[in-house]
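Input/output pair, single chain:
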Amino acid sequence: MVRLLSILFLSFISQVGFTQFSKKLDSLVNDYNKARSDSAKVIACGKLAEYYYIYQFDRKGDSVLQEQLKIAELSQNKNLVLAAYIGNAIMNINNKWARNETVDRVLQFLNRGLEYAKTQNRDDYVALSYIRIAEINGKTGDLVSAFNNADFATIISQNIENDSIKILATLTKGDIYQARGESLLAFKTFTNAFENAVKINNVPLESAGYHRFASLFQSLKNDITAKDYLMQSLDLNTKAGNGEGLIRDHIALARLTEERSHIEKALQLANSLELDYYFIQAKGIMFGYYAYKIGNSDSTLEFLHNNPDLTQTWMNIGKPFYYFNIGQAFQYANQPDSAIYYLLLAQPGFESDFKERNCRDLYEAMGQCYEQLHKPKDAILYYEKALDLNTRMNSLGNEVSYTETLGKLYGQTEDYKKAFHYSTLSNSLRDSLQKLANQRDIALAEVNNEKRKHERELELAEQGKITRRNLQYMAITVFITLLFFVLITVGMLPISKLTIKLLGYFVFISLFEFIILLIEPTLHHLTHGEPLKMWIIKIFLIAILVPIQHYMEHALVKYLGTQKKRNILPIKKWWPRKKKLTENTIDEIEEDSAVL
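Output:
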């Protein structure tokens, strides 16, 4: 009965999900039909293709991309052609669960774009192509190709002025270092990229740097530091008002902490900002929360019933993927018989269309279910399949788990020879796993040392900045003081009133600009750097300071004019008197000489 209801539920969900999907689709198609210029049509096609890829309508997305490329080529606009080849839409494909043919098509399309960018001598698009190819290689497990392409991107990006592409290339290379287990190199690479992002004040890339640090420390089993980095990213994006960055933060925190509040916040933000990609992603995480944390199949299926767009997306990836998720919902709810029913439905499609690591996960789930049902022979069959695929992927942790379980299962079937073989192999692998854990601890210690060293360098650099800033403040203070002294001194000399006014204007401008300079750091902190708030407050400050400046300037000029009338330094009178005195003295000397 449960199975029949689930099948009927699947049919109903598909219809409802498609209806909701088609509403926005119609809007995007309408935007395309209204477009008149080639550039507007290319942009509209890009948005339409991106929407198809978000919901995993890969074939339709491919068709729209081909149409976009055709429009761009007919326009003979090279920039439009490059935008069509290397747009954002194609990166919305689910690389983890994409079928092999889908990944092959994506790589083929990106390589065509790469070759076109090379013929146009556009190093920026060449670097960006290598970055995207490397990202897909890394997610599909081809680390050799991923590193080579990331390395090409890093080298080529040095010849371009776009700092953002340079940082993206560096981050991608760091991802490959991390995937290869080279944690210290990954940390140094991420640090380099993060500092460059800070220099150009690029908030999304700074946030991406925090996420890379979090991922690295999480892989080193240091969730506390990982969470600290994600919270720093959350604070950064909150101050900057970066909604998309906030969604990414909450999604990452949800995965790390398994706290429902972060999933709900991500869903709320993604819905309010109409960012479908993150909305579907957050719903997938919520499904995992219901299935794994709550562990109740009824509430999990009810969640799917209330979110037909999620089910439609899974169906678009492939029915086997949908069946796999339903099977896991029953598995975590401790209903292994229902779970096996759906996992068996998924098996043929997984074996023919999906990657080896996806098949391994399926075999592992089926082995666990048969183990729960106390069917050791069936469990052995699937655990051995999982072990065979896992050996090719060199995942030692899973290998230890599989061999240990196989040893127990063969013991239950009284095949003690194989039970001993797998138990011995498990112990041997466990020793290797312990060595790997020790290496991870060493890597964590190295990364922490590098982190502390870098923090000390930053502190010294910051202290140097503070010292230089204070010295400059002192120099400005001394300079303004000297200006006032010079103004007062010069004002006592017989010079024109216009000259005094000009000098006074310069002196008071220097003084009040210095006051603004002193206030600005506090102002920036209070407004979080928001231009509108700073603009309003500065207008208010200037409205207060300008009349004060004019009043003080007028008062000083009037005062100096009064001092001139008093002849504090009566040079004109003093100079003729001295001159006459000198003439009289000369006459007296001449008279004395005559007497002599």
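Confidence is low (pLDDT under 50) at residues 1-17, 571-575, 577-583, 588-596. The CA atoms of residues 409 and 580 lie 126 Å apart.
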